[in-house]
Each structure stands twice: as structure tokens, then as C-alpha cells.
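Listing S7. Sequence submitted for prediction.
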Amino acid sequence: MSNSIKFAVIGAGRIGVVHASSVSKIPGATLEYVVDPIKESADKLASQFGCKAAYDAEAIIKSGEVDAVIIGSPTPTHVPLLSTAIDQGIHALCEKPIDLDIKNVDELRQKANSAKTHISIGFNRRFDPEYNTAKKKVSEGVIGEIEQVIIISRDPAPAPQAYIHVSGGIFRDMTIHDFDMARYFVPDIVEVSALGTNSFCDYIKEENDFDNVTVTMRGAKNELITIVNSRHASFGYDQRIEVFGEKGMLQTDNITPSTVKLSNGEVTSSTDAYLQFFIERYSLAYQYELEAFIRGIQDGKQYGSTYDDGRAALILADAAVESSRTGKAVKVNLN
């Protein structure tokens, strides 16, 4: 392998733009290809970043022209592309979820876990500076043993109906990031309870999905984790975490474009609105995730989410779906 790792970004949608931008910023990484079956999309993004466009992901993985792929194509393509990458000795960073069906995930599990190449799942929030600082302080024992974790994640507005239709539902699409973040702080979760409602979006209801959910989970040491999700928030992208322990509490807050505050006769400590989209909020997290992926390739260590982390998040999502439909708590085994 050359000194510079040659990448192909598979998928030219919004997440493909994010990953292509990250590759272009990192020393030691070269963006060789953008791959998408929609020629216009591949050509446009390739032109933007000065690389080659291609339209067949399997062919590029087998071409011998790339060392690593970032898989940001539709979810049903993830398992086949990961399998091909492993067969070809290509490193792979794959977006979440691995698949919408746990059976497909389990069929590839042994192969993925025994791969000689580096395989990571794209739970980028583990690399967010705010969450990472909180995790570091937990590891240092600053708040003692964790007793409660509260994760709040609200989108500014619902995704289009066409996206909702193929998303796998809010638990597998949106909450899955929060399931992984919950395990970042409490790895061993044993029980899941979930409630979902339709509060504001008719087309989400038409898709037999929820727009407003809460999940409560129990850890093996009786830690309680609460996740609050909504598909809309009038004030922007709402992303907060609170970790409570025997010795204290850690909290992260939402990010604004600046720290400037205004106080006058009408408002006190008024700030800019929160960032409006996940790309802006987690831009550094995506970059740090890719840097860690490259570092893992170079030194053979795992810094990001593993295949089994991706599997565990899907198990929790499936349990939340079951609980929300049956009204019963669901026991889980993440091993």
C-alpha cells in the first residue's frame, strides 16, 4: 500500500459529500473515486473534489485502484459491499445501520470479525469533542459509578416521506445513533422499553412510523438510560447528553455558531440559534472519525465503532420497535 491511502467514497448523497470533504482535508488520504449508480450525482461530486467518478461500486472495490472504501450508499447495499471489501482485502468504513435485518448482520458477523482488513461502523458521535470529553471524565472517575444517562436528540424537521419510507423507522434510522452513544457510556444494556406517538407529521404516521419517541433502558449494573427523540424542534438541531453518577454530573449543551450573547431591554443572554443540521453539528466528529479510521489502518488498532457495536445498536433498535408495539419491556443479550 502506498504512503497515501487511496479512498473511494461510495454514495454521492449528502453523507457522501461529508465523507468526500473529510478525505480531502486529511493528510495521508487521497480521494480516488466517488461512486454512485446515478451518473449525474457521481460526476458532480467527483468534479467538486477533483477525483474520478465511477458508477459500479463492486467493480471499484475489485479494481485494485483503492486501499479503502467509505460506504455511504443505501442501507441494503451495506452487507454485500462490506463482504466484497473483505474478500478483496480492502479496508471499509460503513455508515449505520449495517442492515435493517439482524439476520443479514449476523450472517456476515464472523467474516467481518475475522477480517484481516480494518472494518469500522460509522457512529461518528463517539468522536464528537463534547461527548468525548464527557466520556474521558467518566473514565477518570470524576463522577464515580454511572447511575443515569439522559440523551436528547431532536431533528430540526422531518425527513421527506420518500426517505421515511425506506429508513427502517425512527428507532433503526435516528435513535440508532443514540443507542450507540448509550453503549459508549453503558456498554452492557440488558432491557429496553420504548414508547412512540404521532404528534405532528401525518405522512410519518402513514408510513406506520413514529415522529416522537422515548426509550428507557437498564444496564447490567442497574444504570438507567433515557433517550428522547423527536423528528422536529423549532429551535434547531437539539443534541444534549447528561451523565449522572454517585459523585456528580456531566452535561453537554447545544452548539451555536458563536458564543456571543445579547442582553438588552427585551432579552437576557440571547444567543444565535442552534445549528440547523447534523452535518454542521457533527462536522468535526466526521473528520475525527476518519482520522481514527486511517490511524487504525496504519497501526492495526480499533479506534471507532466495531462491527459488533453496529450489531448491538441494531439489536437495541429492534427491541425498541417490539416494545413500542407491545407495550412490554424487552430483555436483550448483546453478545
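Caption to Listing S7: primary sequence and predicted C-alpha cells for the chain studied. The CA atoms of residues 171 and 317 lie 5 Å apart. The mean pLDDT is 96.
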